[in-house]
Amino acid sequence: MPAEIIDGKMISSEIKESLKEKLEDLKRKEIVPGLAAILVGDNPASQVYVNMKVKACDKVGIRSEVDRYPKELPESDLLNRIEELNGKESIHGILVQFPTPAQISEEKVILAVDPKKDVDGFHPFNVGMMLAGKPTFLPCTPLGIQELLMRSGNDPSGKHVVILGRGSLVGRPLASMLFQKSKGANATVTICHTATRNLTNLTLQADILIAAMGKAKFVTAAMVKPGVVVIDVGTNRIEDPSTKSGYRLVGDVDFDSVKEVAKAITPVPGGVGPMTIAMLLSNTVKACKIQSEA
Amino acid sequence: MPAEIIDGKMISSEIKESLKEKLEDLKRKEIVPGLAAILVGDNPASQVYVNMKVKACDKVGIRSEVDRYPKELPESDLLNRIEELNGKESIHGILVQFPTPAQISEEKVILAVDPKKDVDGFHPFNVGMMLAGKPTFLPCTPLGIQELLMRSGNDPSGKHVVILGRGSLVGRPLASMLFQKSKGANATVTICHTATRNLTNLTLQADILIAAMGKAKFVTAAMVKPGVVVIDVGTNRIEDPSTKSGYRLVGDVDFDSVKEVAKAITPVPGGVGPMTIAMLLSNTVKACKIQSEA
Does an H or E element contain B110, and which? Predict the structure, then answer.
């Protein structure tokens, strides 16, 4: 029996709907969450992402503003602008779209954002709170994965979660979140990467397998056990002359073969991707609530 | 063949000897690292720990001072004292001995210490830097375990490290350190805890097994594979009428049986314990060097 498809588009829509209700409650108190996005340079993918985020804000009722700067923007100008936004009462969340041009240190940018407005969950202070299991902003993609698991009826508690990839956006934070003694977590977690030996021996043990290493169609049916739940975080472009653009997006999982073995699986696109933006919105509303109560 | 005993006392002595040399170099530049320890109340174990730390400072040539307060000390007084020490140039490291009495929030104490003087590596900012793999103060016990592994010729790179326990002092930070792509790390890491199913199935796969869950003699020979390297972080008091005190310390590992199967094993006491203090000294010297260059 082929796997249930975990529909990230649908689940993210549900989340956005419930955010709308929260936003209407806030509106009655004359509170409107504000998100500031900063885009430096003309990277086409970054422009697409920022536009998607702004559009998603509009749809649910979050006020957003985008600062667009030429790619030559000096680092100090960007840091000053972040400082301004840190102090601006109408802005509750700040996001700087990465990658930034070479003259700008991403580390300095991350450190410049006030942890209270760090809706991406990138600031070391928030990362540390996350590892300690304390309340904080959780990074959007891992948080979206946790929501996908819970809302598709695949609570990780007591399960063996095997994570492929130790990146700072997914593997590391997700591992830190899933072994916590808390709701939506409490899993035994194994984190694998380029230095892992006998990888298949480990992936075969996964009750839940998270593929986040950025290698097209890497995980095959022979690498997973029947009944596994597979979350595919990869978005890899591969050539496909049959499409108009000449390429198409595939995940880190060989979807067609793995779906015959798995209990449930996320598609690419339409799985993890839509969740990331929904979680950004959710974090922005959370930031607004915290800052409005303070 | 019984296991090689990894001698934490000897290895920590080597580390302290090399610190002495560094301290003599600093002295020639008229720089003396200073550590401030704060002890609130009269918990006997805490008194022993603080005395051990002060004595160890003396031995290598770190200047130390201890603030001893009655157990009724108001939280605000402690936080004010930490603030003072944050600003004191001759103090490079600050440690507050835990546990503190009930009226004092350990979380607030941790947040009060300037991350630059946080030689325990407890501040969320430093914890976040650790998870990100950035330069920071690493917490003393996990750092000591990493040193034990490297100095006993058991580089974790490419190995499967299974950690028992997800505590904030050992399990969590150690996992975060050992999966990093860096020297002394680069391991596949599995973190197990009370919710883990089929625990023995996982411990049997460990190339390196770290027991840090605080259950006396929990890990038995039947739970490990021949040739495993075992690091025992437990210190549990068990009754022993044959001793003068009526009790003795044992680890989380059943040393006598496991040493017959393992390649190498740390004893309790004399394994991880002495390393923790050596790493505190090492972090204090590091803090001094960073602050003196600034």
Answer: helix B106-112
